[in-house]
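> run fold PTTG protein
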Amino acid sequence: ACSTFSQKSCEECLKNVSCLWCYTNKTCMDYPVRSILPSSSFCSLSNARWGVCWMNFEALIIALAVVAGLILVSITVCCCYCCYCRRRSRSRLDEEEEQLARKREERRLQSLQRKHERKLKHDEIRKKYGLLQDSDNPYSRFENE
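> ok
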């Protein structure tokens, strides 16, 4: 039982994790597990020690609350940042894909235009030298000289 360590040292009392040390009357008592925090009728939080002797129960609660708060905030920030980056990267990929499709279509149209211009130029040359066949009558008589 924790009461056997009363009037001894804090270190001896806190070797057992179920014990609570009170500095005001130097008593070692069972930790009140039914309530989360020990009531001030047993011992004030600034004079109570649990787990370690160098930190009072009040500071321990504050430190644990700050650490838990920081963990929760960092998890929330990470989740929000990841969701934002994922959404942003998807929209960026869609924009890039759309831009590539537009460029591809522009190149195809330019290629067709150049092909048409070459055909017209070649037809002019063929017409100049009499090599152009009549488009109205594709089946013309083959002449031997």
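The two ends are 129 Å apart (CA to CA).
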